[in-house]
Amino acid sequence: MLEDFLSLVTKPARYINTEINSVHKDLSKVKTKVCLFFPDTYEVGMSHLGLRILYNILNSRDDTACERVFSPWLDYEVKLRESGRPLTSLESNVPLSHFDIIGITLQYELSYTNILAGLDLAGIPLRASNRTDGHPVVVAGGPGSLNPEPLSDFIDVFFIGEAEEAIHDIVELRQEYQDRVRFLEVLSKQEGFYVPALGKKNVRRRIIRDLESAAYPNKPILPLMRPVHDRATVEVARGCIHGCRFCQAGMIYRPYRERSTENVKSLLQESLLCTGYEEISLASLSSGDYSSIQSLMQELVEQYKQQRISISLPSLRVGTLTPEMIKAIANTRKTGFTLAPEAGTERLRRVINKPVSDLDLLNAAENIFRNGWSILKLYFMIGLPTETDADLDGIIRLVNTIFAVEKKMSKRKVQLNITVSTFVPKPHTPFQWIGQATLEEIRTKQVYLDKKLKKHGITLKHHSPMVSLLESSFARGDREIGHTIEEAVRLGCRFDGWSECFDFKKWMEAFQKCGLDMSAYACRTFRMEDILPWDYIQSGVSKEFLMRENKRAMAAQITKNCRVECWQCGMECKDGGTSSLGRPALVSSSFANTDAISFFQTQRQRLNGSELSTRLRFKYSKLGRIRFLSHLDLMTLFQRAAARAQVPILFSQGFNPHPRIAFGPALSVGMESESEYLDMETDPWVDLLQVTKTLNKTLPEGIRILESLVIPSKTASLSGSIVRYIYEVSVPNIFSVDLDIRTKTFLSQPSVIVSKNGKQKDIRPGIESIVVTDSTASIRLLVTLVDKNQLKPRVQDVIEQLFNVGQEQAVLFGIKRIEMFYKQNEQWLSPIAVN
């Protein structure tokens, strides 16, 4: 991305490229250049497991370089368009048009406008028919590819299925066939590929039969800013044995396959050692169905409890949630706990094939509260097929009953967070024929729930029914709806899944201009004999099975999980747990890293029953692009660097322990510094020189420890003692005229008034000096500020007042913190000079 924009946009850390474990290859020395485009923000895209897997696979090839790009936020897009510069990759800042292949993730229908906007920003023709041999081949995959129709005019080739093996086919065939037309013709003959320009054909989803041996990143990229899911993740299983009738993922990711516990533990440990994460996640569509979940949880809890590493099971079915599992999770750090009843009554849960009784839910809630949680999240859907008013009343009754149990069991203030979404019928599910409830119906249901669940301690949140209506129209759309997406992009629609960006009026305008009706797409009901827009895509689950499940749903009949009985869905995996598809063959355990285990065992022995500790102080610099990292993200960065360096940091006591690391005054985003400070409390046997050396090896580019020392335990805190700061300010040429006179006049003022949040304050008492330094390279100011009483002047305010500029112009001044001081015996001392 372009560094000169970063001071002018929100969350500039989205665009810096110095992450731990990222791969930077010389693009001139590889045969194939691939850019993976995730059409959402960095923090969303870096939470996507598929992106990480493909990045790892492609960069493991010597002949291929893989880089990433994410949708730039609205302000960055404006800067790009104003400058006339193209969208570029994160790693090398190379325009997307220079790559051989652009791989796009179709994870969510409401990111489709971002795809077209990204191609346009890259200077790549939107329509596939307008691309030539000089343009990249645009390949799209993910769950959205199971209905390619809405994007068929814009994508060169869709991949249907799991890409761990197929990605090699794409690269190797691209190397063999440089002619675009010939390449697409050959690729279309491979299993799992659909080229819209060559006409519709039946395409069967491609699957990985053996998850155990499938490629998986053992050194995942560690984002510098926190992504949505900020933890070490291992996919323990793929697919689902249950078949909830509303759930597209449970259908299209069949058959069910598992990784061995040995493989899971090995991957987790490698990830932790190279990232320093403080949370691990066992990912699957239903983690509780993993064959060895109980023993695996117990082993992981025992393995990592002394390191304060928590364990997350992000998708747990109530029926698989045992008291033992809840207790095991409770032994680590507690956040919120989530249950997803989906429907308010047992009858409606039978309709959607989620046979969970009210008693099961109440027992689960009671066990959760008994083990220390005081916050519980509940997920429900409204607008489900056959739903009645009695089902809405069931949600109200169930929430109130669980809340009463929560207040009885928890000793703390309790909170019940209820999220209610609108049912969206998706292709390749038993409900694909059923239209969505109308906008008016959903609004009526939401108002009813709002009225009945208005209670202190219960928070109710609805998903926007307009967003759900648009999502449904895309999910069930045909090729005509692609024209609407293109028109909406022209109208400025972006990030439609973000509530602050979604503009329903623009979408209505786009549909009207194209002569289409959004509700007609979303709410239409198909007959069983109708040819559906996506029928030529074969997910592996047969249409006959989906029809049978639709009929069983209308009769509220349960279809048991496929470990109990095979229902002939079309995947031919027999029991959802065979050695060839489900449970892998047993392998010998080889996950233990002896050095790491030895280190943490030694740490436990040293600290057992001891109150001794050592307090270390570090002086470090923050230079280059890393200056755009926020103070909060910087704190996380150091915590994880210390974990990777195996520094035995002590933790606070209490309900949610934190590492004992304390930072000096925060540095504003965008500022460099040659003198930042932090204190770290460790066990008393550390080697200061070794800790400093190892930390410098683990810290990213731009952060370097300059000095370190052991300080007395009762030394005043950095944040409480530092009150004087020196900044070096680079002055742009247009502001350098008569700078000496300007500075003297400014300092002669008795007061300097700044306004913030409607309040005014005089910062003049905190401005100690401003000195002009003129060099051959540039003109600079040395600004010295002092905190006085409750006054803490900001150097940005000084610049704005001195040069009479606003925030937009003030960011043009380069600012670097040179030093900070505390006062002792009437002398100003550096924080590193502690007696």
Structure description:
- Helices cover 32% and strands 19% of the residues.
- Among the domains are: 3-201, Rossmann fold, CATH 3.40.50; 334-424 and 435-463, Transcription Regulator spoIIAA, CATH 3.30.750.200; 603-715, Alpha-Beta Plaits (2-Layer Sandwich), CATH 3.30.70.580; 720-829, 2-Layer Sandwich (Alpha-Beta Plaits), CATH 3.30.70.
- Strands 18, 19, 20, 21, 22, 25, 26, 27 and 28 form a 9-stranded mixed beta sheet that branches. A 6-stranded mixed beta sheet has the order 2-1-3-4-5-6.
- The protein contains 26 helices and 28 strands.
- With 835 residues, the chain is of the alpha/beta class.
CATH superfamily of the domain at 3-201: Cobalamin-binding domain
Percent helix among the residues? 25-40%
Count the helices. How many? 26
- Taken as a percent bin, the fraction of beta residues is 15-25%
CATH topology of the domain at 3-201: Rossmann fold
Low-confidence parts, pLDDT < 50 over ≥5 residues?
Answer: 587-610
The CATH architecture of the domain at 3-201 can be given as 3-Layer(aba) Sandwich
Oligomer: single chain
Q: Tell me how many strands there are.
A: 28
Q: Using only CA atoms, what is the Rg?
A: 29 Å
Characterize the biggest β-sheet: 9 strands, mixed
CATH class of the domain at 3-201: Alpha Beta
End-to-end separation in angstroms reads 45 Å
Q: What is the 3D form?
A: globular
Structural class: alpha/beta
Mean pLDDT value:
90
